[in-house]
Task: inverse folding
């Protein structure tokens, strides 16, 4: 005999309730697993921090968070990385203007290259007493 619509609806309701209960149980198990992993990671961080003479919170704030954010911090006692003056690499033979070869090339190099020349023509190593030697 075929079940009535009312019986089918009742059966569907029971199955949905069982599925919801199973979903709640799985979510709780998953959360417990995550919590267990976090505890294990925290213990590892604490152990590492002690090995290098720091506390875990300082290690996390000063070393781990910057790495995870893609912006590692310099150590407080590390020398700053200020730009050092750069020796000129290219010199215009007439005006004496120079360029170090980094950044936007000066107009005189761009104009020379546009005319078919090479910036190597302006290398200081190729110049002696203002005279270009190729």
Result:
């Amino acid at each position: 005999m075929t079940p009535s619509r009312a019986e089918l609806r009742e059966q569907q309701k029971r199955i949905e309730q069982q599925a919801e209960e199973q979903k709640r149980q799985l979510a709780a198990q998953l959360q417990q697993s995550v919590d267990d992993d976090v505890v294990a990671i925290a213990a590892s961080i604490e152990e590492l921090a002690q090995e290098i003479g720091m506390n875990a919170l300082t290690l996390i704030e000063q070393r781990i968070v910057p790495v995870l954010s893609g912006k590692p911090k310099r150590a407080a006692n590390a020398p700053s990385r200020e730009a050092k003056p750069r020796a000129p690499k290219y010199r215009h033979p007439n005006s004496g203007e120079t360029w170090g070869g980094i950044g936007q090339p000066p107009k005189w190099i761009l104009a020379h290259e546009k005319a078919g020349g090479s910036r190597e023509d302006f290398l200081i190593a190729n110049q002696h007493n203002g005279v270009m030697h190729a």
